[in-house]
Amino acid sequence: MFDIKSLLKRGIEKELLDVDDYIFMPESIEMVVEEGDLKCVLNSDGRVNIFYTKQGVTDVRAAARKHPFTSFDRELNHGIYDDIIEDLVKEVNKILDSESKYFTNIVLPSAAPLSLTVPLKP
Q1: Model pTM?
Q2: What is the pLDDT of residues 30-57, one digit of tens each?
Q3: How far is the C-alpha of 67 from the C-alpha of 49, rounded, in Å?
Q4: What does the alpha-carbon distance between residue 105 and residue 114 come to, in Å, rounded to a whole number?
Q5: DSSP, residue by residue, the chain
Q6: What is the per-residue pLDDT across 85-97, written as a single tens digit (0 to 9) for each?
């Protein structure tokens, strides 16, 4: 025999915990981490995007909301996304520490020389 009360309770809990049915207030939190800019964004659909930029290199990771009924800043305070942030910082640092095997002997110009951009007067 089954318990109708527990069956109904499970059905109601499932309905309440279905994060796809909720719309979240978008939030954005920015900070400096290991000399780079970290931006954590909570989207209205509950996804979390984490951006990390250092010395012109940007990488991003997406995560599912882990505790949808807890405030976003509290989740960040308790380190819920620390593993994702650590991987992101590690990957950006790995890119910055690497060198191209194809472009090592070429110096790419940052700007055209003045003589090429300004016409000479006759």
Answers
A1: 0.67
A2: 999 999 999 999 988 888 999 999 999 9
A3: 15
A4: 24
A5: ---HHHHHHHHHHHHHH-GGG--PPPEEEEEEETTEEEEEEE-TTSEEEEEEEETTEEEEEEEE-S-TTS-HHHHHHTTTTHHHHHHHHHHHHHHHH---SSSSS----SS--HHHHSPPP-
A6: 999 999 999 999 9
